[in-house]
Specification:
The structure is a single chain. This protein has 106 residues and is α/β, with parallel strands linked by helices. The protein has one domain: Sandwich (Hypothetical Protein Aq_1857, Chain: A).
Length: 106
């Protein structure tokens, strides 16, 4: 299961409310490309695909494809504002390390 912090829920609500065509949720997936093979991808989505798990938290629906589910299980997503910049931060207990390119490594 994926957990969204209150800050992440607020940021996602704001993003969804600003879209021309209202999105129904957030799509999160794991993709190749980090220092050791994985990066996170997220985008507003207009509905689930046939193999998606749908998680709803704080009124936000999160769609996760079947290939990414095992890698994202237990992940907490936060929205952080800092002097270096604002953005979503993933705390993934399945990642063995993280690296300077700000991507979790397996």
């Amino acid at each position: 299961m994926i957990n969204l912090t209150e800050n992440a829920i607020k940021a996602l609500r704001a993003a969804i409310s600003k879209t021309v065509q209202p999105a129904s949720g957030l799509r999160i997936m794991i993709d190749g490309g980090g220092c050791e093979g994985f990066t996170y991808k997220m985008d507003l989505a207009y509905g689930p695909s046939s193999d998606d798990a749908v998680i709803e938290q704080g009124g936000i629906k999160v769609f996760v494809d079947s290939a990414s589910q095992v890698h994202l299980n237990g992940t907490t997503i936060d929205f952080v504002v800092s002097p270096e910049g604002s953005g979503f931060r993933f705390d993934n207990p399945n990642a063995k390390s993280s690296c300077s390119c700000d991507k979790s490594c397996r």
